[in-house]
Automatic annotation (TrEMBL):
It comes from the Bacteria. Pathway: Cofactor biosynthesis; adenosylcobalamin biosynthesis. Coiled coil: none annotated. GO terms for biological process: cobalamin biosynthetic process; methylation. Keywords: Cobalamin biosynthesis, Methyltransferase, Oxidoreductase, S-adenosyl-L-methionine, Transferase. Residues 277-463 form the Tetrapyrrole methylase domain. This is Precorrin-6A reductase. Residues 520-575 form the TRM5/TYW2-like methyltransferase domain. GO terms for molecular function: precorrin-6A reductase activity; protein methyltransferase activity. SUPFAM superfamilies: S-adenosyl-L-methionine-dependent methyltransferases (SSF53335), Tetrapyrrole methylase (SSF53790). CDD domains: AdoMet_MTases, Precorrin-6Y-MT. The lineage of its organism: Bacteria, Bacillati, Bacillota, Clostridia, Lachnospirales. Its EC number is 1.3.1.54. Gene3D superfamilies: Cobalt-precorrin-4 Transmethylase, Domain 1, Vaccinia Virus protein VP39.
């Protein structure tokens, strides 16, 4: 069956797709961005593929799709993309047709319009640097870094870009403020262009020669009416055809009969893509725990990839069985893909992985790297299964956790689970974990296995101090056993559980409600601004074992108390930060949640900083004065915050007076909560679930 492929993302591409739908021709439209997919109208006989592709990916996409022809309707300035499409079509032996956008300005009109023509954005920025006045850019977000770097005063820039969150965030990362960003979808009328030029006070308009389709005449007319200088980035010279000519060529290809001889030629010339790739878990050691299925697949492979020790062991197996295969000491998926793309002769491939392919294995992303190939997974004996059998102990009642090549909160896991199997990178990780256990005074039994299934295998048991230092070398795994796990994980530690000093502390009753309103998740990143003693920070850290909490406090005494309370409650994922917000927030990772217990008069600046770091952040604030509440409500309105929660909490505690209990009122506290992703009906985010 015949079908066409359009590389679009432009108005011309959408117009060509609409025409094909009217002709009832099956076709696919490729767009680079989510926004490009959103503006495509659903229609019969059309499918949309979203995502950028390099030349190699295009070749595979074209061959797998068996398209009759390709129409390149990408933007006239997307020169590199068109170059890749043309090359991919040549390699896939598929007809390529370039759809050109109508040009606008002729050479003789340049003088009349008083236009300045430049070759690229770099030249435009250089020309503008020597002149004064505001600049209205309509060249797209990709060109923005050139102007920000090329102009000594980027505040002159006003950029009109596509209305996508990713694009706007990119503008902000470049240092542009909200008033400098016009996020809108064109083309625009002359009146709209004129209004925006007048509103920004621009002296210069920078545009590409986008032709009539891209609204070029309307921009020129608006600038002419206001007496604004126009800088035009010239369109790259290229060959192609008009929309009418492209339509005629596609009609010819559609009507062209196909015979069996042509089909046979196509089958002979198009490469076979259905490569078979086996991801094999080889177990522990030098193939001593290799399964029979894994052994069979290794012997059938034409080429084997894996770490040096694995391909060396595979080579020994092949030699014993009088078999031959190409051995490549490479385990990184992208590198393997590059190798196979340049060596299509290999149809049977094996990639070797330590242990089991489903347990913290590099096999995880292989299927995504080879979407057109047949990828299968051969399980192996994992390090945990082998280690548990050698101790011996069960592992179905244990937590499986890894800090192999990454950071992790081991202390938080041990407090939750009586048994934790821990994958580590080497003896240095064993020492670091055992030192943490001693620092937090954890009564934990430690078992360390090294070089499992190798002749030098060792399994040792003891207390954390027995492994300082860790004298074994090679590959390691640990089992941590804790008989004093905490059963309940809810906010509400008593006030007496914290060191207080003379620093104010959020009371237990208020703390319970405030932390609950944060709606924390296990991997949340939390800022506690104005942390005081760190009571809220500790509660959050205990509820987020996979996350991180930053307690920001300007008082040195408070910082000392935060560190004492963090150690007291064994929260290794709590970091004290001395300073005043928002300045103290600079350099910290982007937060998912924030609690504000004190702002030192900087509430507006703090909220702006938090929302700039993460527009979807969940924020909870505590206040005790009406003035603070009034300021907060005003700021929420200014920031366009909707669906906020505001409530007052009045709590009383009983105290004994002889035979009686009298109630003592605590200070009433206002709680303001807003932001975060809205939950769907029936869902709940609970940090205490494992």
């Amino acid at each position: 069956m015949k079908k066409f492929l359009i590389f679009g993302g432009t108005l011309e591409g959408r117009s060509l797709s609409e025409w094909m739908s009217c002709m009832e021709w099956p076709h696919t439209v490729c767009v680079a961005t989510e926004y490009g997919e959103e503006v495509m109208e659903p229609a019969k006989d059309v499918s949309v593929h979203q995502g950028r592709m390099n030349e190699e990916e295009m070749v595979r996409f074209l061959i797998h799709g068996k398209y009759t022809a390709v129409a390149d309707a990408t933007h006239p300035y997307a020169v590199e993309v068109s170059k890749n499409i043309r090359k991919a079509c040549e390699r896939a032996k598929i007809p390529y047709i370039r759809l050109l956008r109508d040009g606008q300005e002729k050479e003789q009109e340049r003088e009349k319009e008083n236009l300045v023509y430049v070759e690229d954005s770099k030249e435009a920025a250089k020309w503008l640097e020597g002149r004064q006045g505001k600049i209205f850019l309509t060249t797209g977000s990709k060109e923005l870094p050139v102007y920000v770097e090329g102009l000594s005063d980027p505040s002159r820039i006003f950029a009109r870009v596509l209305p996508s969150a990713k694009v706007v965030e990119g503008c902000r990362e470049l240092g542009l403020e909200g008033k400098q960003i016009c996020a809108m979808q064109g083309p625009f009328s002359m009146e709209m262009n004129q209004a925006m030029l007048r509103q920004t006070g621009a002296s210069y308009l920078v545009t590409k020669d986008t032709g009539k389709t891209g609204g070029f005449p309307e921009k020129l007319q608006a600038a002419r009416n206001l007496g604004i200088q126009v800088i035009v980035i010239q369109r790259p010279a290229e060959e192609g055809a008009s929309l009418e000519a492209v339509q005629k060529e596609l009609e010819r290809l559609w009507q062209q009969p196909s015979c069996e001889e042509e089909k046979e030629t196509e089958r002979e010339t198009r490469p076979t893509l259905r490569r078979r790739i086996s991801c094999i878990g080889i177990g522990m050691g030098d193939f001593g725990t290799l399964t029979l299925q894994a052994r069979e697949e290794i012997l059938k492979a034409q080429i084997l990839f894996g770490a040096q020790r694995m391909v060396k062991a595979a080579g020994s197996l092949l030699e014993r069985e009088n078999q031959e295969a190409v051995l490549v000491p490479e385990y990184r998926g992208e590198k393997i893909r590059e190798y196979l793309m340049s060596h299509p002769e290999f149809e049977r491939v094996a990639i070797l992985f330590s242990g089991d392919v489903g347990f913290y294995s590099g096999a995880r992303g292989i299927r995504e790297l080879f979407p057109e190939d047949q990828v299968e997974y051969i399980c192996g004996i994992s390090s945990v299964v082998y280690f548990a059998s050698r101790i011996p102990t069960s592992w179905q009642d244990a937590k499986l956790y890894s800090i192999h090549g990454k950071a992790g909160n081991v202390i938080g896991q041990i407090q939750r689970w009586p048994k934790v199997f821990l994958l580590v990178s080497g003896p240095e990780d064993v020492e670091r974990v055992c030192r943490e256990l001693e620092d937090f005074q954890m009564d934990v039994r430690v078992t360390v296995g090294s070089n499992l299934a190798y002749p030098q295998e060792q399994i040792r048991r003891g207390n954390p101090g027995d492994f300082l230092p860790c004298k074994t070398r090679g590959l390691h795994i640990m089992l941590l056993e804790n008989t004093n796990v905490r059963k309940c994980w809810m906010p509400g530690l008593p006030d007496e559980a914290f060191h207080r000093g003379r620093v104010p502390m959020t009371k237990e009753e208020i703390r319970i409600l405030s932390v609950s309103k944060l709606k924390l998740e296990p991997d949340s990143v939390v800022y506690d601004v104005g942390a005081g003693t760190g009571s809220v920070s500790v509660e959050c850290a205990l509820l987020c074992p996979e996350g991180q909490v930053y307690a920001i406090e300007r008082n040195p005494e408070g910082i000392q108390l935060i560190e004492e309370n963090a150690k007291l409650h064994r929260t290794a994922n709590l970091t004290a930060v001395q300073g005043t917000a928002p300045e103290a927030l600079a350099g910290l990772p982007s937060p998912t949640h924030a609690f504000i217990g004190g702002s030192s008069g900087n509430l507006k600046e703090i909220l702006s900083c938090l929302r700039e770091k993460n527009p979807e952040i969940r924020i909870v604030m505590n206040m005790i004065t009406l003035e603070s509440v009034g300021e907060a409500v005003t700021l929420l309105k200014e920031m366009g915050i909707q669906e906020e929660e505001i409530f007052q909490v009045s709590a009383s505690r009983a105290r004994k007076a002889g035979r009686y209990h009298l109630m003592t009122a605590l200070n009433p506290v206002y709680v303001v909560a807003f932001g975060g992703k809205r939950e769907k009906r029936g869902e709940s985010a609970c940090a205490c679930q494992d």
